[in-house]
Prior knowledge:
The structure holds 2 protein chains of 2 kinds. By secondary structure, chain A is mainly α. Chain A has one domain: Orthogonal Bundle (ABC transporter involved in vitamin B12 uptake, BtuC). Chain A has 10 helices and 2 strands, in the order H-H-H-E-E-H-H-H-H-H-H-H. A two-stranded antiparallel sheet of chain A has the order 1-2. In chain A, helix 1 packs antiparallel against helix 9. The radius of gyration of chain A is 19 Å and the shape is globular. In chain B, the strands form 4 sheets. In chain B, strands 1, 2, 3, 4, 5 and 6 form a 6-stranded mixed β-sheet that branches. In chain B, strands 8-7-9-10 form a 4-stranded parallel β-sheet, with helices on one face. A 3-stranded antiparallel β-sheet of chain B has the order 11-15-16, with helices on one face. Chain B is built from 15 helices and 16 strands. By secondary structure, chain B is α/β, with parallel strands linked by helices. Chain B is 40% helix and 17% strand. Chain B folds into 2 domains: 218 residues, Rossmann fold; 172 residues, Response regulator (Rossmann fold). Chain B is globular, with a radius of gyration of 20 Å.
Amino acid sequence: MxxxxxxxxxxxxxxxxxxxxxxxxxxxxxxxxxxxxxxHGAFYALGAYLAIVLAEHVGFAGAFVLSPLAVALIGLxxxxxxxxxxxxxxxxxxxxxxxGLAMVAEQSLRWVFGAxxxxxxxxxxxxxxxxxGDFIYSRYRLLMLAVAATAVAALWYLLxxxxxxxxxxAGVQNxxxxxxxxxxxxxxxxxxxxxxxxLAALAGVLLAPISGVHPAMGAEILxxxxxxxxxxxxxxxxxxxxxALIVGVVRGxxxxxxxxxxxxxxxxxxxxxxLFRPRGLFGExxxxxx
Amino acid sequence: MDHPLASRRRRQxxxxxxxxxxxxxxxxxxxxxxxxxxxxxxxxxPRGVNLAVEEINAAGGVMGRKIELIAEDSVNxxxxxxxxxxxxxRDKVVAIIGExxxxxxxxxxxxxxxxxxxxxxxGCNSDELRGKSCNRFMFHTEAAxxxxxxxxxxxxxxxxMVKGKKWYSLTADYAFGxxxxxxxxxxxxxxxxxxxxxELVATDAADFSGYLLKIRNAKPDxxxxxxAGTQITNFLKQYVEYGLKFPVAGFAFDTAVAWGAGKGxxxxxxxxxxxxxxxxxxxxxxxxxxxxxxxxxxxxxAWGDYLSTKHLAQAMNExxxxxxxxxxxHLEKGAKFDLLKTREGYYRNWDHQxxxxxYTLTFKPPEQVKDKWDLFTLSAPVPxxxxxxxxxxxxxxxxxxxxxx
Lengths: 290, 405
């Protein structure tokens, strides 16, 4: 039994990568722009659909590269013409805007591709399982984890070790001071939105072969990703990473011990975390949101 | 079949927008009729109904009057109820056709009963709708959970997958799933299968890896799905991903689920209410017309919508009236209908369930698949040609219905 529990724990860590790429982007856009992006799931769905379309012409590897890039470009346009107007407005307006965008995106996908799920498979080269002792791993999921880990590492480097990242981090804490120093945050914000929605699209590409690709897939994953952000704490990079892994593990253990509560477990976890740490695990005190 | 978020996922799966079809207005006051000569149909699942309406109108309509369709999205039980109410009161529809979720179906049925307007259920599977929650104005073109279980169960008995076998089941955790599990357990007990595990799955679960690890450790003889909608798609894709070798079967299925998983991602034996492979002249004709109109073959949900609309028009033409009560009486007398299957069917008088043949399907090896719609082989009809259609339906003892006045 202990072995089986350990198996679920490891599987849960893998599954945590599911939410990570989406949660990180959500957290970034919120901490820098003050915008709760309810359309974030839509970019994830768009990434999955684009991957299917592109894969027919350029194969899975091509789609894996091109789909996130294309979605990032769309993100840049949306940032330029829509998001930008809402950073300093009442947060409720941003909520309305992104909620509306999410609905437009979902219905557009339904319009173009139909409401039923459309098929997509793991590329033959990545199929198969890896047995380690008694444990079984999906080869594809291990690869997915590697991609997610690489993306997270790259993002961390960008934010923590580059001049770009320094401005972004300063902007999160005190945008007025950054402006007073003569630095315009606008291009940084645009880049952050582009990167964030690109990561969401990357998650879409990665998940398309192993889950149903249908117009509401974005709405489905969004809630869980929000929970991850809240548990991890807004503005905290490692908080979100840790939270994604914890949510994965807690869900895995609940599947083992009491499956009916598996999906509810992350909400209970969120409740407990908020009771003791209202800003989340590693949430930073961000003056303008207090 | 049926769903939770029910309604949501299955709705997404099968059509996107669901509409409650309500049919025309002869039974209403002259002043209303004066506004439009068309007979109006309200619909809560637009797939197949449009084609039926076109065909009916091209053939002269109902008693010379055109049918007009009003499509609405039912979303959830509360909205379904409100919209059914509006279709009946404002739009003066003579019938409502459609729905997918048993919960919303129940809400519509209550409105239909109160307003004495016919409701054809084309996608809700729960036995309870035919039993405890039955009513005089609700008719079921969709098969009941019992019929799915019994059709599938015969195939499993034939393959020796039941007696003394250990089953591992995953059940969607909401009304439909619970209803299906209850019926499935009855079948198991009667035929000597046992559960090695019997687990409920939340309707928003998309990752099945944790369950797959448990299944792998439990080593069952058969894995049973009592899931619905896109959850079946996810389950199948991931089952293949993890390379588990235990046989798979399910007690509820939609063709769109298989299409959504795609070649190489599907396995097992599943029940189905109809498929375009059914080789009768009427079935071929419907399939051809549907492909021409929609660019893809019809699936089971389109069949249900199409058929209900045709049955309603046929009944009204036969009795020369759109009066709901008269249509109900006509149907209860055992009027026979073509079902695009080998045998004709009828709506059973005590629970209003359409008595009909069912099928099971098995998937082709990937190398035999010709195109993305051609994934499986359909069985011969169940029950067989010499049996009563009622042998797979729930009995009065199992699922009694007492129609409220």
